[in-house]
Specification:
Blueprint lengths: L1 E2 L5 E2 L12 E2 L3 E2 L5 E8 L7 E5 L2 H10 L2 E11 L7 E14 L5 E7 L4 E3 L4 E2 L3 E9 L12
Antiparallel strand pairs: 1-4, 2-3, 5-6, 5-7, 7-8, 8-9, 8-12, 9-10, 10-11
């Protein structure tokens, strides 16, 4: 989904703490698709905020559950449907793991500022999904850390 170009790579001090991390001035989207822009902060006050760019709904959930961090903000850049010629921003307030009732597959459910439930590749309003487990309230300072057995 994201494309990096060697000419946009630059040398920077490695502040990530990850050996071999690379830095780019820019990345490109390989097509018009949803991008999740998530800002997290460490639970202890001396950890800096980090912003992640993710391409899939379940990657957002996996990232949240794998980090000891709070989700400070989540903005989804989504293609404007049905034109599919530009992106628009959707601010997310809650993230749920759920099931798409149409195909039975696990999915991410994102509740926006207006309370609209969104899911799928285009994050369209969707009432045919069932909420199974709250992952986090964005800006709420905590997140779920275990999956039900």
């Amino acid at each position: 989904m994201f494309v990096s170009m060697p000419q946009h790579e630059f040398k920077a001090p490695d502040l990530s703490g990850k050996a071999g991390a690379k830095f780019w001035r820019s990345v490109f989207l390989s097509g018009l698709s949803t991008v999740f822009v998530m800002t997290i902060s460490g639970r202890n006050n001396n950890q800096a905020q980090t912003t992640l760019f993710l391409a899939r709904d379940l990657d957002v959930i996996d990232a949240i559950e794998s980090m000891d961090a709070n989700v400070e903000s989540l903005m989804c850049l989504v293609p404007v449907y049905p034109e599919m010629t530009r992106l628009t921003g959707v601010n997310v307030r809650a993230i749920w793991e759920g099931v798409d009732m149409g195909n039975g597959e696990l999915c991410g459910i994102f509740v926006d500022d207006s309370g609209t439930q969104r899911s799928g590749q285009l994050l369209l309003p969707n009432e045919s999904v069932s909420r199974a487990r709250l992952i986090t309230i964005v800006g709420g300072g905590s997140h779920a850390t275990s999956r039900p057995q």
